[in-house]
């Protein structure tokens, strides 16, 4: 495989629940891609929504990754410890006059069909005299760098499904004084020097916004590689919201084999005779992202 110099990948789970099989597929795909390129693989805990994060979940995620042999490089980065950096960038955007408070309710957005009409852009002057951090309103960034498509390492060219969404002023700071996912992801991917983001295909649309933010902040844009989603027996994405079962703490090897099978990677004959470390080393040597989409993943159901 062609080696990418100074490759840095990452796995960035939100601690809103324990890791499940879909999480493992994402973590494993990201890990194998980094290791196959002789790069670094980082772990970031995206803990920006404390009301949705059960105590101890971050610790459980870390222990589960260790149990499955997915060890990271460098110290774990916790987004909850990065608030000063986020505020500094938000203040800069505010001073530049490129963002504004949005007071629209969820009910109004629902009535609009879920796509914001930039209603609040002209409701208040873009001035430093207005206190920026207001718990009763969100911040929106004036869209100046719309992105309609991008090249994905796995999915190929991905096009936005809606021009209206592309042109929408996105939220960069949420009501209740919470930082928006898209903004902090871009900030921290740049901070950590991430060169390629490997994650689930449910984040294809947010990637368009994140590339736009990279351009707004004049930051280098990483490559993106989106893995197919694991679905449950009801045809829905396997997720914490759908009460997916936590990964078992028994022998990790058969679960790793299942994840490799889902990613359409060569299955190691006689894998029972290998240690977990050896199994992962073989998986790294055989890793082939180009094979991932060569089977119908919609037929693979779990749970």
Automatic annotation (TrEMBL):
Enzyme class (EC, first level): ligase
GO CC term, one of those recorded: cytosol
Binding positions for Zn(2+) per the UniProt entry: 102, 104, 116, 120
Motif ('KMSKS' region): 237-241
Motif ('HIGH' region): 13-23
Function: Catalyzes the tRNA-independent activation of glutamate in presence of ATP and the subsequent transfer of glutamate onto a tRNA(Asp). Glutamate is transferred on the 2-amino-5-(4,5-dihydroxy-2-cyclopenten-1-yl) moiety of the queuosine in the wobble position of the QUC anticodon.
NCBIfam families (UniProt xref): PRK05710.1-3, queuosine_YadB
Protein name, UniProt field: Glutamyl-Q tRNA(Asp) synthetase
Species this chain originates from: Proteus faecis
């Amino acid at each position: 495989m062609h080696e990418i110099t100074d490759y840095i990948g990452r796995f960035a789970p939100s601690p809103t629940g324990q890791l499940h099989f879909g999480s493992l597929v994402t973590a494993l795909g990201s890990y194998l891609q980094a290791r196959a390129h002789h790069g670094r693989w980082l772990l970031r805990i995206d803990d920006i929504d404390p009301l949705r994060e059960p105590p101890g979940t971050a610790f459980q995620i870390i222990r589960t990754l260790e149990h499955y042999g997915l060890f990271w490089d460098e110290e774990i980065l916790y987004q909850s410890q990065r608030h000063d950096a986020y505020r500094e960038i938000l203040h800069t955007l505010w001073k530049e006059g490129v963002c504004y408070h949005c007071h629209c309710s969820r009910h109004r957005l629902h009535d609009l069909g879920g796509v914001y009409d930039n209603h609040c852009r002209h409701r208040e002057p873009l001035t430093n005299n207005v206190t920026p951090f207001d718990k009763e309103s969100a911040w929106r960034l004036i869209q100046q760098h719309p992105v309609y498509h991008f090249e994905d390492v796995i999915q190929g060219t991905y096009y936005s499904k809606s021009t209206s969404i592309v042109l929408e002023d996105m939220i960069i700071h949420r009501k209740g004084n919470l930082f928006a996912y898209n903004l902090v992801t871009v900030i921290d991917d740049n901070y950590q020097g991430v060169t390629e983001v490997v994650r689930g295909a449910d984040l294809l649309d947010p990637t368009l916004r994140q590339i736009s933010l990279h351009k707004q902040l004049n930051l280098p844009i990483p490559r993106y590689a989106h893995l197919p989603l694991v679905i449950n027996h009801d045809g829905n994405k396997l997720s914490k919201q759908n009460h997916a079962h936590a990964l078992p703490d028994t022998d990790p090897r058969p679960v790793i084999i299942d994840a490799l099978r889902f990613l359409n990677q060569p299955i190691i004959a006689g894998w029972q005779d290998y240690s977990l470390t050896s199994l992962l080393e073989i998986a790294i040597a055989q890793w082939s992202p180009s094979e991932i989409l060569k089977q119908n993943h919609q037929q693979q159901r779990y749970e």
